[in-house]
TrEMBL record:
Record field: transmembrane: 6-24
Organism, scientific name: Meiothermus taiwanensis WR-220
UniProt keyword annotations, A-Z: Membrane, Transmembrane, Transmembrane helix
Protein name, per record: Membrane protein insertase YidC
Length: 125
């Protein structure tokens, strides 16, 4: 056999090196738009007699909570969901965390309250 590199082997080797270089240098996908926000100073707990503000277009109909996530069912529309926890607060853009009225947000700990846009805060304790 010929001791020199066959041109086909050289091309295959170059393609493999290029492929692995692409895998290791491509940018990693970003996490959903979730940011930490400061807690509100004092937000009164909503009551059955408290009407929703005029700019409140969504309403939380169901909440399911795990240790490190919260799942919401929402009617209407909302652009962002604020989740309050003892470890920090999270703001999530609704198109990034769900669709069709069902949303799932990862949290650093159990949620204590949740809020849609500028709607009243829903206390979970």
């Amino acid at each position: 056999m010929d001791e020199k590199l066959n041109p086909l082997r050289l091309v295959l080797l170059t393609v493999l090196i290029g492929y692995f270089a692409f895998l290791f240098t491509r940018p990693q996908p970003e996490e959903p738009l979730v940011t930490q926000v400061p807690a509100p100073a004092t937000t009164p707990a909503p009551t059955a007699t408290t009407p929703a503000p005029a700019n409140c277009l969504g309403q939380i109909t169901q909440v399911a909570q795990g240790v490190n996530e919260i799942r919401l069912t929402i009617t209407g529309s909302a652009e962002r969901i604020l989740v309050y926890t003892d470890q920090g607060n999270i703001t999530a853009a609704t198109p990034e965390v769900g669709s069709g009225g069902e949303y799932r947000i990862r949290t650093p700990g159990p949620a204590t309250a949740v809020q849609l846009d500028d709607c009243p805060v829903l206390n979970l304790r």
